[in-house]
Amino acid sequence: MNAASLGQRQLFGIKKDNLLKRISTYFEETNNAGEVVEYFVAVLVRHALSVGDYSINELSDLIRSIFLTSEPTDTLRQHCVYFQDYFPDEKDWKTVIQRLFASEAAFRDYTREASAYKALLDEKNREVPVLSDYQFNLVSVFKDVTGKRHTWALQNIKKVQSTEQTRGILKILTTLTIFKTAGVRRFAEYVRYKSVKGRVDAEDVEPVVTIKEEQTPAAKTPEKPKRSAARKQAVAASTGKNNAALLYEEDVEQTSTALPDEASLDTASISAAPPSSSKTRGASEKAPSSTKYVPESLQKPDTSYMKIGKTKEQIQEAREERKRQRKIKKALNKRKRR
Question: What one-character-per-residue DSSP string does 236-258 give?
Answer without folding.
Answer: HHHHTS-HHHHHHHHHHHHSSSP
